[in-house]
């Protein structure tokens, strides 16, 4: 079960990096509902870092499982914006648990479409919280018509593409890596 959660988070991370809520990404992703989250992310040139991380974390099987999952997938440029050496350090075998924690922080159990996220924000008077697969919360809010995702440290990601349907959930692409 723990491996499934980690895999789910990593896959969501990859997929979300290419999709934002209510908008389209510059990256074209050939997505069909017959492909799972990992397969979709693997076919996106903007999510190669996410896919590498999911593999290193041992989460491929989890994120390929039935789900459903909602993944906020950071793009390659989101990973590149992290402090120098962060990604390389996390990819080391000795840091697999830390990597799993980061990746599963980008995954929600369940299928949350953009409309579901926006509705939760409106019901929450401008802010909604969601429990991630790693057990910690992320927060969603609107900035005009853009959905923003905030981590517990105050880092904010913008959804750049949304509602990329997969056979086992949905991917929303984000422009920043959020951290537990």
Beta-strand fraction estimate: 15-25%
Nearest-integer average pLDDT: 85
Strand order of the largest sheet: 2-1-7-6-5-4-3
Overall 3D geometry? globular
Q: Uncertain runs with pLDDT below 50, 5 residues or more?
A: 1-32
Give the name of the CATH architecture. Roll
The main pleated sheet reads as: 7 strands, mixed
The total beta strand count reads 7
Order of helices and strands: HHHHEHHHEHEEEEE
Please tell me about this protein's structure:
There is one protein chain. This protein is of the alpha+beta class. It has a single domain, classed as FAS1 domain (Roll). It is 36% helix and 23% strand. A 7-stranded mixed sheet has the order 2-1-7-6-5-4-3. Helix 1 (2-16) runs antiparallel to helix 3 and helix 1 (2-16) packs across helix 7 (96-104). Mean pLDDT is 85; it is low at 1-32.
Task: Reconstruct the topology from this structure.
Blueprint: H1 2-16, H2 37-42, H3 48-57, H4 60-64, E1 69-74, H5 76-80, H6 86-90, H7 96-104, E2 107-109, H8 114-123, E3 128-131, E4 137-143, E5 146-150, E6 156-166, E7 169-174
């Amino acid at each position: 079960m723990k491996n499934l959660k980690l895999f789910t988070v990593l896959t969501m991370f990859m997929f979300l990096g290419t999709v934002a809520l209510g908008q389209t990404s510059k990256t074209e992703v050939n997505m069909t509902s017959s492909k799972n989250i990992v397969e979709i992310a693997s076919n996106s040139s903007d999510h190669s870092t996410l896919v590498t991380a999911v593999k290193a974390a041992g989460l491929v099987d989890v994120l390929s499982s039935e789900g459903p999952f909602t993944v906020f997938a950071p793009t390659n440029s989101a990973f590149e914006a992290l402090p120098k050496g962060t990604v390389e350090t996390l990819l080391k075998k000795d840091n697999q648990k830390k990597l799993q924690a980061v990746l599963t922080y980008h995954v929600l159990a369940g299928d949350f479409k953009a409309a579901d996220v926006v509705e939760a924000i409106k019901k929450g008077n401008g802010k909604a919280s969601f429990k991630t697969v790693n057990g910690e919360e992320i927060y969603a809010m609107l900035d005009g018509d853009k959905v923003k995702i905030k981590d517990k440290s105050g880092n904010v990601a913008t959804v750049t593409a949304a509602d990329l349907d997969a056979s086992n959930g949905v991917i929303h692409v984000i422009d920043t890596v959020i951290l537990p």
